[in-house]
Amino acid sequence: MAEVRLTGVWKMFGDFAAVKDMNLHVKDGEFMILLGPSGCGKTTTLRMISGLEEPTKGQIYIGDKLVADPEKGIFVPPKDRDIAMVFQSYALYPHMTVYDNIAFPLKLRKVPKQEIDQRVREVAELLGLTELLKRKPRELSGGQRQRVALGRAIVRKPQVFLMDEPLSNLDAKLRVKMRAELKRLQRQLGVTTIYVTHDQVEAMTMGDRIAVINAGVLQQVGTPDEVYDRPANTFVAGFIGSPPMNFMNATITEDGFADFGEFRLKFLPDQFEVLEERNLVGKEVIFGIRPEDIYDAMFAQVKVPGENMVRAMVEIIENLGSEKIVHLRVGGVTFLGAFRSESKVREGQEVDVVFDMRKAHTFEKKNGKAIF
Ligand code: ATP
């Protein structure tokens, strides 16, 4: 096992910077997720850790070993980095049995036959593949094939697993199942794992910590709770959570309200204190609140009429069964609420909605950085 460290890592493709000044410390045994939209540089980062790509600048350490530093002319090839990779398209050898597919990396390394047999059987047991060892890949389901690919990665007992969207070819139901299996397996093995995904649900459910990346720049590294509850900026706030956080322009009033023009909401005393300290009274901020923190007043637990309640027009209702996503409007201000399924709201009617101000966020207007 090993920690993985990136310091000041850049990757240029011609003039284009795919990864910009990345500093990331993945702890020994940690499950770290690299999360971000398509093209943000997740795969490029992973490929630099694996050695499939060379950084343009900066250092990469696996354990104590410096594996890449272009300034010093250091570049350790993938086969000498003691890592195992699992990709989206898990290419198994079609003519080989499950047993031989899993055994293959050990055969390559000339591990004695008896040890190979023991390790393949251990891994098969761990992954529930024991009954399938004699089958060929075409005789397996998608999930079983993906487990064989995982087996092939873990049989070597590498120091680090690198995974690039390994579940994205599976159907939704199987993905949920494999998510839990993979997480359990990683806990059991305790191997440092770096896992690339653009799926925030995958990130939230599997990661010990999540590194959120946008346009080649690391935005925030934190536990799922931290990135959800205390996003560092509007990008992270908007990317984590579904439906996404509502953002509304607000002016901070002297008496401690967020003024949206059409209506006002009162900050809690400690929130207003922060805004006063930052000299934001009379100024504009971006106010953020998640749809799940806006309630139909009929069902709200945080009722303080007149201070955090407003009458809104219901424009559209998306009924998800477990909850209702309600598109709301107050004058020119629009936002989403995630209401309990019992809510009796109707499209085209008005409803009193309550904002849970304990869950309110504010961000600087100029750069989107979180104030609280
Ligand atoms: P996705 O989720 O779509 O796979 P990603 O976050 O993994 O996206 P990368 O594959 O790391 O993104 O790509 C980051 C950026 O670098 C993209 O804009 C991509 O077009 C560019 N890029 C990647 N590889 C190369 C290359 N070999 N040559 C030129 N540009 C590249």
Automatic annotation (TrEMBL):
Keyword check for Transport: yes
Subcellular compartments: Cell membrane
Molecular function terms, GO-annotated: ABC-type transporter activity; ATP binding; ATP hydrolysis activity
GO CC annotations on file: ATP-binding cassette (ABC) transporter complex, substrate-binding subunit-containing
Ranges of residues in domain ABC transporter: 4-240
An annotated GO BP: carbohydrate transport
InterPro entries: AAA+_ATPase, ABC_transporter-like_ATP-bd, ABC_transporter-like_CS, ABC_transpr_MalK-like, ABC_transpr_MalK/UgpC-like, Mo/tungstate-bd_C_term_dom, NA-bd_OB-fold, OB_MalK-like
Keywords, comma-separated and alphabetical: ATP-binding, Nucleotide-binding, Transport
Origin superkingdom: Archaea
Its membrane topology: Peripheral membrane protein
PANTHER family: MALTODEXTRIN IMPORT ATP-BINDING PROTEIN MSMX, OSMOPROTECTIVE COMPOUNDS UPTAKE ATP-BINDING PROTEIN GGTA
Protein name from the UniProt record: Glycerol-3-phosphate ABC transporter ATP-binding protein
Originating organism: Thermococcus barossii
The organism's taxonomic lineage, starting at the top: Archaea, Methanobacteriati, Methanobacteriota, Thermococci, Thermococcales
